[in-house]
Amino acid sequence: RTAAERNTQVTHTSVERRVELARAKVNLTLHVTGQRPDGYHLLDSLVAFPQIGDRLCAEPADRLELIINGPFARNLDGPAEENLIVKAVAAFAKSSGIPAPKLRIDLTKRLPVASGIGGGSSNAATMLRLLEDITGQYLAEDTLHELALSLGADVPVCLNQEPQIMTGIGDVIRQGPQLPKCGIVLVNPKVEVSTPDVFRSMARRDNPAMPLMPEVFESPDHLASYLATCRNDLQEPAISLCPEIDSTLSALEGSDHIKLARMSGSGATCFGLCEQEEALEVERALRASFGNWWIAAGALT
Ligand code: C5P
């Protein structure tokens, strides 16, 4: 049978099987500039999506099912309805006024969980995009953005996995600069960090905003020298809760070829920037010294 014939048997389905990379979200900068009365923090952050991520596959089935495999599957052993992917399916159906799509969803969890690189947020955002394609129900961008925000502050920025600048509580998003061809190495010391705890441990919340940014970064050195004038304001409080982050940063900073090292999000994952051709060499060297850490190298965009 042709794909079209198969599809006629499954209501609300216009595409039969889709596979996407739900990329890691890396905060190249994260300035915390204030706090709203409801407790959420005001941010100013340059975000990029390297070619490192979870694999998400969805296809029509006779019921909704989420199957999780991969190196970090065991860290997601809670009930399926608590998974952001399943929440995304329910929220999408409600918002678009269709019955909950019956899908077999396969997640290969390669990114560490609760680790500051938005794995869950990226999964949810990617699922929303997949749902649009699979059901043929394309939502207005505003509606999709609201839906994403209802799932988490970091979900909207993950809808378009390209360089972006986040302000507000993460909900105000604009296109980011053009980033150079560049390598990135992500390192996590295999410790989970609680985001609310890190925000609570901040000594001050009224920090200066991000310095004016060029529209185009010509080279990895240009990017690194700009980023050196920026910060992640969550890095210090995260280190106070999780000293392993300090060791992770020291390991990256001590690596050959690394131009800049910093923590992403609320940690514990840290990133190092290098020339694209050198990323794998950095990964190999770190792995030889820190065999039990999670280490992944790839292109920055
Ligand atoms: O929205 P999300 O569930 O991803 O946020 C997790 C937690 O991070 C929130 O409960 C809040 O404590 C903290 N947070 C914050 N300010 C933000 C984003 C998150 O205080 N802008």
Automatic annotation (TrEMBL):
GO terms for biological process: isopentenyl diphosphate biosynthetic process, methylerythritol 4-phosphate pathway; terpenoid biosynthetic process. Catalyzes the phosphorylation of the position 2 hydroxy group of 4-diphosphocytidyl-2C-methyl-D-erythritol. The gene is ispE. The active site is at K25, D154. It comes from the Bacteria. Belongs to the GHMP kinase family. IspE subfamily. GO terms for molecular function: 4-(cytidine 5'-diphospho)-2-C-methyl-D-erythritol kinase activity; ATP binding. Residues 230-290 form the GHMP kinase C-terminal domain. ATP binds at P112, V113, A114, S115, G116, I117, G118, G119, G120, S121, S122. It is an enzyme of class 2 (transferase). This is 4-diphosphocytidyl-2-C-methyl-D-erythritol kinase. Signal peptide: none annotated. Keywords: ATP-binding, Isoprene biosynthesis, Kinase, Nucleotide-binding, Transferase. It catalyses: 4-CDP-2-C-methyl-D-erythritol + ATP = 4-CDP-2-C-methyl-D-erythritol 2-phosphate + ADP + H(+). HAMAP family: IspE (MF_00061). It comes from Roseibium album. It holds the Pfam family GHMP_kinases_N. InterPro entries: GHMP_kinase_C_dom (IPR013750), GHMP_kinase_C_sf (IPR036554), GHMP_kinase_N_dom (IPR006204), IspE (IPR004424), Ribosomal_Su5_D2-typ_SF (IPR020568), Ribsml_uS5_D2-typ_fold_subgr (IPR014721). Its EC number is 2.7.1.148. Gene3D superfamilies: 3.30.230.10, GHMP kinase, C-terminal domain. Residues 83-159 form the GHMP kinase N-terminal domain. NCBIfam families: ispE, PRK14608.1. Pathway: Isoprenoid biosynthesis; isopentenyl diphosphate biosynthesis via DXP pathway; isopentenyl diphosphate from 1-deoxy-D-xylulose 5-phosphate: step 3/6.
